[in-house]
Amino acid sequence: MDIILASGSPRRHELLTKAKVDFTIMSVNIDEAPYQDESPKDYIERMVATKAAAAIAQLNTELKTSQKDNATPQVAIAKPTIILTADTIGVLPDGKTVLVKPKDFQHASTMWQQMSDDTHQVWTAVQATLVSVSLSDDGTTDTGIDANSEPLQVLWQRQITERTEVTFIPLSQAMMERYWHSGEPKDKAGGYGIQGLAAAWVTHINGSYTNVVGLPLAQTLALIDAAQSRANVEGS
Length: 236
Ligand SMILES: Cc1cn([C@H]2C[C@H](O)[C@@H](COP(=O)(O)OP(=O)(O)OP(=O)(O)O)O2)c(=O)[nH]c1=O
What we know:
Layout: E1 2-6, H1 10-18, E2 24-26, H2 40-68, E3 81-91, E4 98-99, H3 105-115, E5 119-133, E6 152-168, H4 173-181, E7 202-206, H5 209-213, H6 217-233
Parallel strand pairs: 1-2, 1-3
Antiparallel strand pairs: 3-4, 3-5, 5-6, 6-7
The protein binds thymidine-5'-triphosphate.
Thymidine-5'-triphosphate binds at residues 7-9, 11, 32, 86-88, 101, 122, 187-190, 192-195, 212-214.
C-alpha cells in the first residue's frame, strides 16, 4: 500500500519515519487563514480536507501531464494509495480562539501571553484519503487525457482530531523576546515547539505528546490500518 504524506512539516516526516512507515512526501500550499468566527473544529477539519483536495488536484495534473507526454508520473499511482494530511492548532481555554503560526513577534507574544501560566489545548487533525486510478490494460488510465477527466477517484476518507492539554509556566517579556530570536517559533502553531526550547515552558501535558509535535502517532497508525483494511475490501 503506497502512502503519500502531503505535508511540508519536518516534524511530521520525522514522526512517521520513527514509526517505520514507508511513505513519499509531497507539499501542498493552501490558504490557512481562518474564516471570521470560525470554530476550531470547523477550521481544523476544513484545513485537512482542503490539503487533501489540493494534493489530489496536484496528482491529477501530474498524471494527465505525464500521460500526454508519455512520461512516468513523479508519483506513480498504480494501486490504491493513502494520502495523509494534517493540521495542528492551539486552542485557548475559551474553546474558541485558534492559535496558528505567528505572523511576527507581536502576534507570537500576544498568543504566548494568552497561554502564560495557564493550560491551553493543542489539536491535530489527520485525514486519510484512499485514492485509486483506474488503469486500462495498456497501463494508461482508461479515463484518457481528456482535460475534464480526473484520473484519481476517492474510494474512502476519514478524519480524526486528537486534543492534548499543555500547561505553561508564567512567561516574562524577556523570555518571549529571547525565544522569538531563536527562530524556532516561526513555523509552529501557537509559536512554539514543545520538542525544542519551549520544552522549558511546559510544566505538564495531558494527552498525546506526538499530537502536540504535529502528528498523533498511535492514532495516525490506526487510521492507516483502517485505510489499508478498506483497500483490501476494495480488492486492491
Ligand atoms: C504546538 C507545536 C506545533 N508544531 C508544528 C507542527 C506543524 O509543523 C506546525 C503547525 O502548522 P501546520 O499548518 O499544521 O503544518 P505545517 O504548515 O508545518 O505543514 P503542512 O501544512 O504542510 O502539513 O507546528 C511543532 O513542531 N511543535 C509544537 O509543539
